Amino acid sequence: MAHRIRTVRNRWLAGGGSVLVAAAVLAATAAPAQARPALRGTVQISVGVNGTVPDSQSWSQAISADGRYALFTSWATNLVSQPAKSGRDAYVRDLRTGRTERVNLSDDDNALDGFTDYVAINADGRYVAFDSEAENVVPGVQVQGRTEVYVRDRRTGRTELVSGGLTSTDTDRFHASYAPSLSANGRYVAFVSSRTDLVPDLQGGDPSLARPYTWDYNIYVTDRWTGKTRLVTRGVDGKPGDGMSLNPTISADGRTIGFTSLAGNLVPAEETPAVAAAAVGGRAPADVELAPGLAAATPRSAGTSLARPTTGVYYTYDVKSGRISAASLDLDGNLGYASFGATISPDGRRAIYALPEPGGSTNGHRFHTVLYVRDLRKGTVTKVSGGLPGTASVGSSDHGRITADNRWLYFTSAADNLVAGPQHAGWDVYRHDLRTGRTERIATAPDGSLGNGSSIDPVVDADGDTVVFGSTSGNLVAGTGGPAGTDNQVFARSAGHHRDGDDRGQDGDD
Fold it and tell me: The pTM is what?
């Protein structure tokens, strides 16, 4: 079975074949097999120059499919020797060499004078996509002081603007682009934008994208090899989505895009499943306890006068056919409103999302969230974070990330019934074996005891051998035993090979 596992991983590394054009040549940039990280236990990767203590907090974001490069963002100013110019930058940590580099850089290798919030990395770590409000990212390209999406080639040192219009007719600085997601070979970039000039048939603007701002952001995908951009959230009426769409995730091969949306015109009414009972009156449930960071996932440039949504329907988009399908169904086949932490598996076959359930939460909200995994090919739905048999919890679970073989799901949870034994009082990181149904805690001290802080936002490599997550705990690394900190930092852990007997993932029976 080892051969099968390597095949799944290599499919992720080599993903991103022809979709928007007839033929493609895969980028031969995969890291060699000997470049696997030599991690033992848990290490902190958000550290200052020469191992000094970072002077601010950091957040885990992504990891390359080969497990070598960890991507994170940070407010810290002492992680690399080049001085920071903005409040939040993006960094890549080489888990094999221990080298950290800032990656949200201008095309002439200078630090940026604007914030970076959302980042992505491709399978072998060569390309990093990021958003930035800086005006000095690509010299000579005017972006009107608004947030745009860029891709940095770490091999050549070049940075390019991805979310540029055909003729740059949209000069409104409040029409921003953000939240990129990369295909495995870095060819395709999915992102959110409210610009009006990204595709030809929207030239001159569209009422759904103009002032007054109604958060009608849409999802686009750009082919970096051809320069062509496609509107993903095009409604059945041919118009852009009539409500906000966000949180895009593109599959490794670039053929499937998952996203969350409040738009009502994306699928025909007869193809929309019944609304789940939790969504009273056909509306998204209010007062949902979300995992840390998800409450702020809406665009910051959209204004402050509107109430911030917390959930939306999760959809998938087939790039080849242009078909949009509702994905966030519960066990009864009813449509649920998922939190903004939803995603798809690397092969695009599964949707992972958290649906609100009534009955309270650990912090007094009326709803908590529970994780689900849906096989988009078979239509089957699995409830993941329901807890041990005969137990119930009001702790939310979210931010699920799955391995390339669709077997191991890593996630964040505040539930107190997922594993036996002592329970964590706050948010913690777990992994769930979708074949056996077993759940185990990941963010633990070297002796297996609980972390003394909160741990969140796990990301995992293709094989599930390395997991990166954020934590305030002070006792996760061998040789340390300090108290929990006030700043979130980023850690990497060798999760070990999960190979035990029948090594098939969830697709092993296909």
Answer: 0.89
